[in-house]
Amino acid sequence: MDNHILCVIPARYAAQRLPGKPLTLINGVPLIVWVYNNAVASGAFDEVCVATDDIRIAEAVELAGGRAEMTAETHKSGTDRIHEVAQRIPCSHVVNLQGDEPQIPAELLNRFHDNLLQIDDNCLLTVVGHATIEEKAEPDCVKVVLDRSGRALYFSRAGIPFVRDDGTGSTYKHMGIYGFTARSLDIFCSFPEGELERLERLEQLRALENGMDIRCMVYDFTSIGIDTPEDLEQFRRAVAG
User: Fold this and answer.
1) Which of 95, 158, 208, 241 is the most exposed place for a label (fewest CB within 10 A)?
2) What is the pTM assigned to this prediction?
């Protein structure tokens, strides 16, 4: 089929640090709708939808004029949820956009679109940026090391690469946007959970363990990912000003 990029935003109601996060209101608008509207406004995708197992989230998106797809409650990951939706909606490429990142720049999403069209069926695309000194030590900040062509060698919650002596160099952090061809998504989701994936609790390691390429687009941007009540208040202040 001709190129048709489907952007899917996975959303669950349950969240350990911020229960009901997708439906949290900011200026009267649910967080998931902020993310959906930002994706649509970028113009980077042919189609955008929210994938959820909670009817309340689906209704909130549809009330705002968006598209939502109900998915099974048994999915272990957002990628599995996206895969279910991609089986129903014809597409050549699929983007997994996190449901708690309402301020991803349109320029990034459009560059991601252009790079996504260059990958093959044994590959996925993601985004990395430069980590701060503080982020290097944070397990919640996922680090990645790249080869000379920008492919991921490894992702870890540990501080990699380890600087043994007085050397200096960049440490990259993973930004959490994924792009697949429809076929590479099928292939990825056919693999069982990997050992490194289980140990690090990082889904992308499943691809590396099974010989898939992960190409990394370097793009530094500042946004407020909503993980905690403090993040939520920061975002509220940002959009209020």
Assistant:
1) 241
2) 0.92
